[in-house]
Design brief:
The protein is α/β, with parallel strands linked by helices and about 280 residues long. The chain has helices at about 10-20, 50-60, 75-90, 100, 105-110, 135-150, 240-255, 265-284; strands at about 1-5, 25-30, 40-45, 65-70, 95, 115-125, 155-165, 170-180, 185-195, 195-205, 210, 215-225, 230-235. Helix 1 (about 10-20) packs across helix 7 and helix 3 packs antiparallel against helix 8. The N and C termini lie far apart (about 50 Å).
């Protein structure tokens, strides 16, 4: 496959290193602008600018399979255009939603397709937090996107509560979701912690999956023949997330199947973000 990488040169070179080990990649072309990309099988858009969705839409309309590597966008109007353009052009699009693309998450989602209950807790050390409303928003949007993707069901009811110190410092947020299939999820994020902690726990009637996100270690618990709970462990290398996400994208193109996080996923997430932000403005 011939692959194009569009965007910042330094980040482009880093992504080229992620692609080189894969035998399916024969050639990599680095370009500063998407208009300069020649005929390629896949295009990686490395872009954190406010115009990232416009560039993605241009790529789709040019018939390019695109992987947008940026923070999760939430512009519903643009994402709807992108979703519809993707369908019309018949191309594959992937978003860099790292909670979904992480190796540990992929393993858990394969093991447990639809949890009955999903609980996410993230404590952020106060000395590491930049006291940025945008950064705080990014934290909970990422986790919300994972809940929606993993549960794979419409949201029946949602509640959200945010706490701000002196109306300027984002301190905590709690989100509760009940899905159409009866499953539930909750997200708790706190920015005044003494140390960083990030856990995701999923369960159904037969198993518990407990993931330490920072080191990508999982404890999988089941009942043994004596009805006693026992755990097995799985470990993944967090440094391989980018390389493996690139391979998943390329394989989706090869097999003509949906990417792990599609334009439709991003569009649906943006709709729920808008709904939750409306509730937060009313009750926080």
């Amino acid at each position: 496959m011939k692959v194009g990488i569009v965007g910042d040169a330094k980040r482009g070179v880093a992504w080229e290193r992620h692609l080189r080990p894969h035998q399916i990649v024969q050639e990599v072309e680095l370009c500063p602008h998407i208009s300069e990309v020649s005929e390629v099988d896949a295009c990686f858009l490395v872009d954190e600018s406010p115009h990232d969705l416009d560039i993605l839409l241009e790529g789709i309309r040019s018939g390019l399979n695109c992987y947008l590597i940026s923070r999760m966008p939430t512009d519903t109007e643009k994402l709807e255009k992108i979703y519809r353009a993707t369908r019309e052009a018949g191309v594959q699009v992937q978003f860099s939603h790292w909670p979904t693309l992480a190796p540990a998450t992929q393993w858990m989602m394969d093991r447990m397709h639809r949890p009955s209950y999903l609980s996410i807790s993230r404590d952020i050390q106060y000395t590491h937090f930049l006291n940025s409303e945008d950064e705080f928003r990014h934290y909970w949007i990422d986790e919300l996107g994972l809940c929606m993707k993993w549960m794979d069901s419409g949201i029946h009811h949602a509640e959200a509560k945010k706490v701000m110190l002196n109306d300027i410092h984002p301190t905590a947020i709690h989100i509760f979701l009940r899905f159409d299939n009866g499953s539930t999820a909750d997200i708790n994020i706190y920015t005044g912690a003494s140390e960083n902690r990030h856990h995701r726990m999923a369960s159904n009637k037969s198993e518990i999956l407990d993931c330490s996100v920072s080191d990508q270690n999982i404890r999988a618990g089941r009942l043994n023949s004596g009805n006693r709970l026992y755990f097995e462990k799985q470990s993944f290398d967090p440094s391989t997330s980018a390389e493996k996400s690139a391979l998943m994208f390329l394989k989706s193109i090869q097999m003509d199947k949906e990417t792990p996080y599609t334009a439709y996923d991003a569009y649906q997430l943006s709709i729920q973000v808008k709904t939750l932000e409306k509730r937060l403005s009313q009750f926080s």
